């Protein structure tokens, strides 16, 4: 079913989902763990989370690229899900950067808080790169390379779809 605009309920649901994701980002525990088994499990869990969110974002982008409605209007529900998964992708990368910075402080310069990590992930996504926060260590540079490739290939494509489709929706 294709509509011109998302319903108030859909917009509210998307906003609440994004706010919930942001709240989870700020409260998820990331303290260093001296227990090697727990650290390995947490690292594996983080990697699994990155893979799941990457798959979700990629599948939403692919689904949105396939949407071809007779009227040419976007399928609003798919577009809303895409926007939420893009926020999730940004937050997962920010969290991964923060965890890496906390576990190995010499990997990043000036990345010491979750706000710093969110700022860095957003600056990387938008390719602004002010330079005040940057990867210094080899592991961080490798992680940021993966983030850049994913950002260019998937998140930027998804964001451009959202913006393009929203520009096509006639105002009420």
Primary descriptors:
Helix Hairpins, 5 helices, two-stranded antiparallel ribbon, 2% strand
Explain what the structure shows:
This protein is mainly α. It has one domain: Orthogonal Bundle (Helix Hairpins). The protein is about 70% helix and about 0% strand. The chain has a two-stranded antiparallel sheet. The longest helix is centred in the first third of the chain and has 31 residues, at about 35-65.
**Helix content class:** over 70%
Number of strands: 2
Strand line-up of the largest beta sheet: 1-2
- Kindly name the structural category: mainly alpha
At CATH level 2, the architecture is Orthogonal Bundle
Report the biggest beta sheet as strand number plus sense, adding barrel if it closes: 2 strands, antiparallel
- Write down the secondary-structure element order: HHHEHEH
């Amino acid at each position: 079913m294709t509509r011109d605009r998302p319903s108030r309920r859909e917009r509210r649901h998307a906003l609440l989902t994004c706010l919930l994701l942001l709240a989870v980002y700020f409260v998820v525990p990331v303290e260093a763990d001296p227990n090697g088994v727990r650290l390995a499990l947490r690292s594996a869990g983080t990697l699994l989370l990155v893979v799941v969110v990457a798959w979700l974002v990629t599948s939403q982008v692919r689904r949105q690229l396939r949407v071809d409605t007779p009227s040419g209007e976007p399928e609003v529900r798919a577009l809303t899900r895409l926007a939420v998964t893009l926020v999730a992708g940004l937050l997962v990368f920010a969290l991964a950067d923060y965890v890496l910075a906390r576990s190995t402080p010499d990997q990043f310069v000036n990345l010491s808080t979750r706000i710093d990590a969110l700022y860095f992930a957003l600056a990387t996504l938008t390719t602004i790169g002010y330079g005040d926060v940057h990867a210094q260590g080899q592991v961080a540079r490798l992680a940021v390379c993966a983030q850049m490739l994913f950002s260019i290939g998937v998140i930027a494509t998804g964001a451009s779809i959202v913006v393009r489709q929203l520009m096509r929706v006639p105002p009420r």
